[in-house]
Amino acid sequence: MTGIPEGTYELKYAAGFDWVEDQGFRVDPSFNEFEKTFQYTEQQSAEEIRYHDISITLHPVIGGNVRTRKISREEFLKGHHQTLP
Predict the structure, then answer these.
(1) What is the DSSP letter of 79?
(2) How far is CA 12 from CA 5, 23, 44, 56, in A?
């Protein structure tokens, strides 16, 4: 991905079955949010830009350092410029 401004980000995601463009998941949709925020930074030198690498998984990992919580569809869509019907 390119063009991501530096900042602190919340990460939300949707899961389910039977994905339909402009509708979302039609079967068993769930909406989740990571309980901590993610800080994205860049450092520029004369030759290069070094960026803060962020890796996540959407399933629990033994020894992982963050949890997720279930949220409503309305909470998931809050602040989105494009929303699903």
Answers:
(1) T
(2) 18, 17, 29, 12
Helix, strand, coil percent content, the chain, rounded in steps of 5: 5, 40, 50
Is residue 82 pLDDT above 60, yes or no?
no
Give domain limits for the chain: 7-77
Place of tokens 């803060």: 52
What does the longest C-alpha to C-alpha distance in the chain come to?
51
The per-residue pLDDT for range 51-65, each reduced to its tens digit, is 878 888 888 888 888
Q: What is the pLDDT of residues 12-39, one digit of tens each?
A: 999 999 999 888 899 999 999 999 999 9
In whole angstroms, give the CA distance from residue 37 to residue 65.
12
